Amino acid sequence: MSKARYVHFKFLPMSLRVLFTMVLLVFGTGYLMAMIQVWESHAGKDGNPMLSGKDLMISYSGNPEGTRMESALRSSMADMLPDEKRQVIFEWLHNKAPAEEFEEKINPILQEHCVACHNPGANPHLPDFTSADGVSKVTAQDEGMNLHTLVRVSHIHLFSITFIFFIVGFIFTHAYVRPTWLKCALIAAPFVVLITDVASWYLTKVWTGFAWVVILSGAIMGLSFAAMWFISMYQMWFFKVPAELEDNEGKLPSLGS
Ligand code: HEC
Q: What is the pLDDT of residue 2?
């Protein structure tokens, strides 16, 4: 039978354990920051403050119900006009905002109820409704994150996360975890779900159900990070080494890697 080849944390020099601990502490903090960032950039897009699959669908594939005009008229701008007129605008938007109907049906409503605030003289920072061009900026369909942005975010994600999980996984190889397949699964899982996560950002544009794969991938990544983090920290400093390891100076006899 082959001798095992990994050395348990307890038999590593103190200096190496201090190095591992510091790296884990900083990565742990980084992970929390990343979670806050995910929350900030996606939660609440569907009107509900919690982070949901719907939020991610909107972020990546756009809001099928929506244009900025419609979301504004369903929320902060809802009280600016009578409901019948609001319905006229919704119908027009749902017909993809045909330009030929604008002058006759829509513009009078905007002139009466909106332009007082929405003109560059009054509020240069608000969408300008004095011209059809200004209106079209908020009636364009929301198509979500564009491919250019996705490619940029993907390559950063793929490189930086691989780097993090290489280091965390490498530290974790010194842990005592039985059965071996479980240890290997914890090391492999983040890389597998990193691929499914990034792929699903694009696939969500094709079928919005992939937003759930994004969420599931993120959850598995977080759980494997947490598991490797806590097991490594615990075994480095608090773990009572099993006798089978003591006898063999931290190398496992005959139990595989
Ligand atoms: C009393 C002034 C006022 C009136 C009248 C008004 N708005 Fe606004 N509107 C604002 C302000 C202030 C904002 C920016 C803050 C916000 O989004 O609540 C805004 C923002 C918007 C936005 C942009 C939301 C976004 O996605 O950033 C849209 C679209 C909009 N209004 C549409 C309308 C329409 C349509 C009407 C007429 C039915 C209207 N507004 C009437 C003040 C007004």
A: 46
